[in-house]
Amino acid sequence: MxxxxxxxxxxxxxxxxxxxxxxLWHLRVRAHKQMLTGQTTAPTLAPEVAxxxxxxxxxxxxxxxxxxxxxxxxxxxxxxxxxxxxxLARLFEVYAMPGAQHPVPGGPSGIAQVFLVPQKSTSSxxxxxxxxxxxxxxxxANSHPSGIQTELLTIQSICSTLHANLPQIKEVRFLxxxxxxxxxxxxxxxxxxxxxxxxxxxxxxxxxxxxxx
Length: 213
Known about the structure:
Layout lengths: L3 H34 L14 E10 L4 E10 L4 H17 L14 E8 L11 E7 L1 H6 L4 H18 L3 E8 L17 E2 H4 L7 E4 L3
Parallel strand pairs: 2-7, 4-5
Antiparallel strand pairs: 1-2, 3-4, 5-6
Helix pairs in contact: 2-4
């Protein structure tokens, strides 16, 4: 003979199972109706479009070892870190184009991130300054042509492009896939900090503006 408490427990479990089944069925029916009527709880957001602004790309040339300022109309975000990354992506795109004067494969995918870190001021009267931490991808670094001049030109063009558009950037440091790397492609030391004042080329006239592509 089944004890009374086991009968009560069985009835309670059966009631709980039936109740849970009813709740799940109700939720399934409601979700199906929402799918048919196209209802959604997430608001539809319009994609953010960056405004086109005049920017300066400092483009290297292997022919004579120079860096020339080229003015471009580019869609750039307002956030300084995102703007810095967009500028370098455009610079890398120029270097990956057929017939580039400073050919470096990889294109925009060669730049992973750019972080801007406030720099501690040693004087109360000095203007604010920042350190840019440029995180390159290993694919870009591994495929970069080896040579003192070509590596130096890449570093100089990166630093001077950042400073030309974001003058508060006074120093630049490099990472590769988030890690410190000894050299870019066997020659230029990437463990050091680069001063934008030292990498800036002599003042030259900017070439005519080119439309954004």
